[in-house]
Amino acid sequence: SDREAMVALRENVRGRLLYWNISSNPCNWTGVTCSSNRVVELRLPGMGLLGQLPVGNRFSGEIPAVLFTLKNLIRLNLANNNFSGPIPDSVSNLTRLVEWFDSKRLIKRKSGEKVDETRGRDAAPAQQPVVEIPGDNAAGESGSRSSGLSGVVKKEAKSSGVKNLVFFGKVSRVFDLEDLLRASAEVLGKGTFGTTYKATLEMGVVVAVKRLKDVTVSEKEFKEKMDVVGAMEHQNLVPLRGYYFSADEKLLVYDYMPMGSLSSLLHGNRGAGRTPLNWDTRSGVALGAARGIAYLHSKGPEISHGNVKSSNILLTTLYEARVSDFGLAQLAGPTSTPNRVDGYRAPEVTDARKVSQKADVYSFGILLLELLTGKAPTHALLNEEGIDLPRWVQSIVREDWTAEVFDLELLRYQTVEEDMSNSYSLPLIALSNIPKIVLRWPR
Ligand SMILES: Nc1ncnc2c1ncn2[C@@H]1O[C@H](COP(=O)(O)OP(=O)(O)OP(=O)(O)O)[C@@H](O)[C@H]1O
């Protein structure tokens, strides 16, 4: 029935369907008998009419070759028809056939091979064969947007018909590489390991995609390391959902965190209209980040984050902390270009790939100072405005305890100074010689 066909169609286009329309257009494919005279049109967002889908029309005869030549065709659903015979030669353009339930009735013809017509005719009716056409067909001409990821990611990734995204966890696979490449993309920022984009997929899903640079490890090693990262599951971590690896492109797919990073909330938009982070929020973020890092450390003595800093503490809409970017330092070569991570780095760390758990704790201590002072620990040599945060804190409170060290935004809240100064219970902090850094953990 048409209702069933609609359900099948919706399921099979996996969210790509913008609208569909059953009209009573006569079907005119040579060699195809159509008993219901109905044609389903499929429109995809921004792509116009893509093709007519013979869903549930009780078509019989061979599948019209024209279907396989349609540009931008992603999936072809032949559900509830009575097609038989060979899949047309042009099917060799297709790199993947999925859910080919009716293998008896529909035969994939290898080039030059004769087709056994009778085999097809005698078999049971086709149930739900679905053909996918990934690769350049789908990402081509009208499909790609100039601001899309496909304009950024190298061709090789686009045309790789075999490789696809590798997903972690029990989450059902909701999109594939082609979906990702067609997504509209916005640069979120450039970091040590590459550039991160906000990618909005046509089906409405939003993800953060990190395009890694300078990956020196082999595919096998990359996979092993990403498997470890992908297995980390904690409410204070940004989950790595999947990755893509090819010779030219390495992509990581994370959940997108709509509030951005602690760094941008603390230091961005200092002008009018800024929403200051109050002490409750800051201490809650510190606690959440500590829990995320402690979880990583609990996974084994050799497992550390390696890059704890405020741009890697992302926030949910409820201002809960999610730690991001763990396990990436070991993918790169030994040469690490100096960057603002240095402001967080424990003095004993000489190789960015070898950061101990203790060094993570040092970086976390710097993060706490950043939360308390509102100052970013950028490296003075690289950035004139940068400060060596522990040294600055020491210089301010060397003689006498003074509230000057705190972020002015925090001091606007009357009770906060007392809150911050009353407690010395910060056993986690391994920063040496920093007097009177006080923080009360929320109860
Ligand atoms: N999952 C995400 N959701 C929202 N924003 C993100 C996400 N991941 C990263 N960002 C933001 O994108 C920007 C770039 O991030 P990226 O991780 O590439 O660099 P970084 O954190 O500045 O440096 P590094 O590479 O050393 O960690 C940062 O502002 C970061 O907060």
From TrEMBL:
Protein kinase domain mapped to chain residues: 182-443
Protein's UniProt keywords contain Repeat: yes
Coiled coil ranges: none
GO molecular function: ATP binding; protein kinase activity
Chain residue ranges for the region called Disordered: 112-150
SUPFAM superfamilies tied to this protein: L domain-like (SSF52058), Protein kinase-like (PK-like) (SSF56112)
Low complexity: bias regions: 140-150
Record flagged with keyword Signal: yes
CC annotations in GO: membrane
Ligand binding (ATP): 210
Subcellular location: Membrane
Basic and acidic residues compositional bias, start-end: 112-122
UniProtKB keywords: ATP-binding, Leucine-rich repeat, Membrane, Nucleotide-binding, Repeat, Signal, Transmembrane, Transmembrane helix
InterPro entries: At_inactive_RLKs, Kinase-like_dom_sf, Leu-rich_rpt, LRR_dom_sf, LRR_N_plant-typ, Prot_kinase_dom, Protein_kinase_ATP_BS, Ser-Thr/Tyr_kinase_cat_dom
Pfam families given in the database record: LRR_1, LRRNT_2, PK_Tyr_Ser-Thr
Protein name from the UniProt record: RLK902 protein
Organism: Hibiscus syriacus (Rose of Sharon)
